[in-house]
Amino acid sequence: MPRSTKTPVPAKRAAAKAAARNTDSGPSQLSAALSDAASNKMAQVQDMVAAMPDNPTKPLEHGFANGLKPPQGAGVPPASRLPTGSTLSEENRSTKTGSAAAEGVNATIDTLDRVRVDAGGRVLTTNQGVPVADNQNSLKYGVRGPALLEDFILREKLTHFDHERIPERIVHARGSGAHGFFESYEALPDITRAAPFQAAGKVTPVFVRFSTVQGERGSKDTARDVRGFAVKFYTDEGNWDLVGNNMPVFFIQDAMKFPDLVHAVKPEPHHQMPQAASAHDTFWDFVSLMPESTHMLMWVMSDRAIPRSFATMQGFGVHTFRMVNAAGESVFVKFHWTPKAGTHSLVWDEAVKISGADPDFHRRDLWERIEAGHYPEYELGLQVFTEEQAEQFSFDILDATKIVPEELVPVRPVGRMVLNRNPDNFFAETEQVAFCTAHIVPGLDFSNDPLLAGRIHSYVDTQISRLGGPNFHEIPINAPVAQVHNNQRDGMHRQAIHRGRVSYEPNSLSGGCPFQAGAVQGFVSVPARIEAREEQGKVRAKPEKFADHYTQARLFFESQTPVEQDHIANAFRFELSKVTVPAIRERTVAMLRNASEVLAKKVATGLGIDPLPDPLPRALADPAPPEVTKSPALSLLARPGDGSLKGRKVALLVAPGVHGASLSTVQEAVVAQGAVARLVGTRIGRMPTADGDALDADASLENEPGFLFDALVLPDGDEGVAALAQDGHTMEFIKDQFRHCKTILALGASHRLLAQAGLPLSMDKSHALGTTGLLFADAGAAAAAAAEFIAGVARHRHFGREMDPPLL
Ligand code: HDE
């Protein structure tokens, strides 16, 4: 094992720790045995793999005699359970996930433990449990002879392989999941009897799946898109699925239009392009003919549609729901998830580049945060209002294209959700999880939102074809922790083995069981009054307030900071520039004129549209005056978060001859804040430093380009700086960091690199705005510079240096 026996210095420990927390590249050598689980796992995997430098039984796969007596496969016993586990976070136990299965044991307790498989120390078998003597060769008549049809082992293996895929989700196909828990701050007996809110500190296990909407299962994470934010609460009164998005409104008002919307946004059917993008003719053709989408378009063209991380975006239930207390009294409610880390997004140029270098950017970020113990956390908030209040609002609370401004109804924090465990197996958990809006529990109910009504049908229906039948609720990730008893029977893939001969109710042959729960325990729909009005009767139409398509679109735009408004205008410009039919562009600008003349003009100028087209005719000439014309809460920048660096990625560039001690000082300080600080070299591997030590680069300028990092540290040391200057990647790295408004710290001699990259420093207004995005320090002052650097990174970006178009 080529591992150093030298006692590691603290700074090197930080480097090794940082290296052990990455999923996409690693150091050339492991530097030291450390006590943290991630480093231990990395070291044990390395030991285990190194102990098997080749496949020793390979020669024995040949020849007739060997074929008659296949050898036992080679193996290396793992030093512990660590190197063979899917995750480190499996140690976090909960009612739903159970514990980590003991080595080599199929645990039979708790919902997921029952099916968790650990092959440690076990032989290969068929699906029938028959030990497989030879997994290298098909059965043949003689070594060169024809393969035999009787080879049930090969046929079972291929048949199973042939059916490994299931249909992907029609929308939200690309997703990433995590386990965690919800903890209620307080009991809410006045509002709801729903199980998760029955006591302060009550913990309910959850599984969350984040997703993009448009792209296929293998598409990029950083597309401009809405993100799904679906939470399954395994409550002790059954499963509750809050299937929301990271934006609080939607494109359409009625489920009838959903297939049209999805057909319009998906790749165009004749040539199946573009993948995971709304920037094409059919989408803009559709939405510009559906002016109710204007509000949602504002959100989708904002930076909300390109989040930095799943851990830094809000979530919303979108529709108005009801909460019901034990007395059967109900109120309306809107659900909000607010990330503890704050709301942070990418910028468009960065998102485009990331999609090439790391299409798994968000999936990797979520996985790495959880494995590192930096658990994503969100606060659940409720906007609660009565039917009487709702009647008075200028908008209709059944219209999913409208928000209830926080200034009108404040958000009440009621609990927190922590995601602390990665799935063991992506397919079994994240792919097979089935969210359904129909899954609610006593204490909750629906409103009459016509979009929600369609969803209540659609989700169960889609799971039946996606998961192969009506028993998808028995798949372990979908199975409630609450008991399930009813008289539904049979169907594809049934797991439950029901005792007895009774499958009907009422019965006496089974002592009347299972019996109906009754109103005290069971789910009772709110007997919502339907007001007797003159125009009552079956009808296909919308309420009048639904026809106000622009007031809240204007509210959103007016509530953004100037930087955010610019980004929205630029996004419209980009998307519409990809449209090939000028009339579609013009129609969209005509629609925007009804929301914001400023925005419409900006977009038109960017697209060479002159003169401005007439505004689209409005469906409602005289909408009710809004209660609120500005809502600061709608700005992304309103939620900077707790200022923590947890989960952020910082690059420290290295080359032979850099000043090691100063760089290590900064790295140590940044790692201590929970960030992942990686040494990025012209190549990976160990490099001597100017001060007589060595640094080990675990990433290279080639495999981890600059836009994958949240901030940059450039090293001191003439020789090292000269080496970096020779590598064109360095300049691209610096330019991207500058263009994307990230914090850059240049130590000592490296200020030369900034000049060589051609940064227009005099045009950077960040300092004038009081932010510290660009820092210079002597190597001797590295500790103080690190503190300033950390403060700069916590601000996320320094938009004072943004230019449109960028100067470089
Ligand atoms: Fe969905 N949606 N949706 N949707 N949706 C699906 O269910 C549908 C809508 C959302 O991580 C599908 O299992 C209809 C709004 C999320 O597995 C499907 C309508 C919101 C996810 C479906 C809507 C969402 C889905 C596809 C209009 C935000 C991913 C596969 C009436 C509140 C859940 C599947 C996951 C997935 C139908 C509109 C969120 C086809 C008919 C509004 C987060 O059933």
Radius of gyration: 29 Å
Q: How would you sum up the major sheet?
A: 10 strands, antiparallel
The average pLDDT value, as a whole number, equals 93
Number of helices: 22
Number of strands: 18
- Determine the fraction of residues in helical runs and give it as a percent range: 25-40%
Gross morphology: globular
Distance between the termini: 46 Å
Look at the helices and sheets and give the structural class. Answer: alpha/beta
Low-confidence stretches: 1-9
Strand content: 5-15%
Bound molecules: CIS-heme D hydroxychlorin gamma-spirolactone 17R, 18S
Describe the structure.
The protein has 808 residues and is of the alpha/beta class. 27% of the residues lie in helices and 14% in strands. It has 22 helices and 18 strands. The chain has helices at residues 10-20, 37-50, 64-68, 152-162, 258-265, 281-288, 294-301, 348-357, 361-371, 387-392, 426-431, 450-466, 518-521, 551-558, 562-577, 582-592, 597-606, 660-672, 718-725, 728-739, 751-757, 782-794; strands at 175-184, 203-212, 227-235, 238-245, 315-316, 321-324, 330-339, 377-385, 412-421, 444-446, 649-654, 676-681, 685-688, 694-697, 699-700, 711-714, 743-747, 774-777. The strands form three sheets. Strands 1, 2, 3, 4, 5, 6, 7, 8, 9 and 10 form a ten-stranded antiparallel β-sheet that branches. Strands 15-12-11-16-17-18 form a six-stranded parallel β-sheet, sandwiched between helices. β3 and β4 (238-245) form a beta hairpin. α1 crosses α2 (37-50), α7 (294-301) runs parallel beside α14 and α16 runs antiparallel to α17 (597-606). It is globular, with a radius of gyration of 29 Å. The two termini are 46 Å apart. It binds CIS-heme D hydroxychlorin gamma-spirolactone 17R, 18S.
